[in-house]
Amino acid sequence: MKIHDWFDGPYPARVRIALAEKGLLSRVEFISVNLWTGEHKTPDFLAINYSGTLPVLELHDGTLIAECTAITQYLDVLDGYPTLTGQTPLERGLIHMMTKRAEIEFLDAVSVYFHHATAGLGPQVELYQNPEWGFRMRDKAVRGMRYFDSLLEHRRFVAGDAFSMGDIAVLGGMIFAALVKLPVPDECTALQAWYARMQERPSLREWHSMVERGAPQN
After folding, report:
1. CA pair distance 157, 155, nearest whole angstrom
2. Within 10 Å of residue 100's Cβ, how many Cβ atoms?
3. What pLDDT digit, counting tens, does each position of 133-167 carry?
4. In CATH terms, is domain 2-83+205-213 a member of 3.40.605.10?
5. pLDDT < 50 stretches in the chain
6. Fewest C-beta in 10 Å: which of 4, 100, 105, 140?
């Protein structure tokens, strides 16, 4: 398998964490697509993923799977024992619900703030910016932090009793928030405590190690 991504991107982080959780990192070849130079918006990459986003999973037969949730779903069932996306219909429903909420209310809102109300990826990539919309999404992201804080006051994980794709989506939001220096409100102690616990997972340690090794040399 190949993964087209960028080594420290918040969305690629979601799939790298999932790979580590499933013990699949050794089976993957990572293909670097430089976000900061806009490589993901070039015609060559758009032929791989129409949306011009990362990451993309490429299978041995040439099949391409984009979108973090779709990639994680595929990876999770390869061994016949899903641990990230749920085993029962109820678990699957709750995990997918919380994953979508993490995207809409937090992670994607941080992304819009980054692309519209900061320098983003630079003028070669950010061809249109609406700062007012960006700041609105910044505020939405903070509300999302408070929402997940309220949930984590009463449960150990985002979607229930076990680590799941929902937790990985919120981790993506936290990673992106740190990248754009968007602080978690001080009163969100449950969210902060959860995030500290997550850092102890081997998959998070492996992701941090990959980031520390730095950008690939092309």
Report:
1. 6
2. 14
3. 999 999 999 999 999 999 999 999 999 999 999 99
4. no
5. 218
6. 100
